[in-house]
Every structure is written in C-alpha cells, then in structure tokens.
Design goal:
alpha+beta; two-stranded antiparallel ribbon; 3-stranded antiparallel sheet; 11% helix; globular; 5 strands
Length: 88
C-alpha cells in the first residue's frame, strides 16, 4: 500500500490532529480525525441514509467528525457523478 499525504488540520498542535492520506492503489481516503460523540452518532441515526438501511454502526466501522477546514484536502473527481449511493 502506497499512501500519499494530502493534508493536516491547519495550525495543528504537535499531535492528535486530523490528517488525510490517499491510497494510490485504490483511490481510497484514509482519514484520522476525532471520534464522533454519542450526540452526533444519535443525530446521524435519526436522519438515516437510504430507506431500509440499518443506522447501526458495525464493529468494523466508526463515525468520525472531520473539521470543515479539512475539506480542502479531499480530492474531487473529474465528473459530478462520484458513484456514491445518495439513496435517491
């Protein structure tokens, strides 16, 4: 796996800061950030995603909170269709 560093939270202290890397082989983003608090997790579960999809977070997944200032480091696809499932 070859990772490319994309960015770190601006004006970051020495450690424990949100960071983003790109997996060159798969195009996946690797994101280190703050674990979402229980209030955030509950709010996301209330909103849900696609109809009929569980709102539970499986043991092999986690929910993170990425600061808005980090969005600048996320690569954008060339087209508007990024292949995600918006449920629509």
């Amino acid at each position: 796996m070859a990772l490319q560093f994309l960015g770190i939270w601006p004006n970051t202290p020495d450690d424990g800061s949100p960071t983003i890397w790109l997996d060159d082989a798969t195009g996946d983003l690797i994101i280190q950030s703050w674990t979402a608090d229980e209030e955030t997790v509950r709010a996301a579960q209330e909103v849900g995603s696609v109809p009929g999809h569980s709102t539970d977070v499986p043991d092999h997944e986690t929910m993170i909170r990425l600061p808005a200032s980090m969005l600048q480091f996320i690569p954008r696809p060339d087209s508007e269709d990024n292949g995600g499932n918006s449920g629509t």
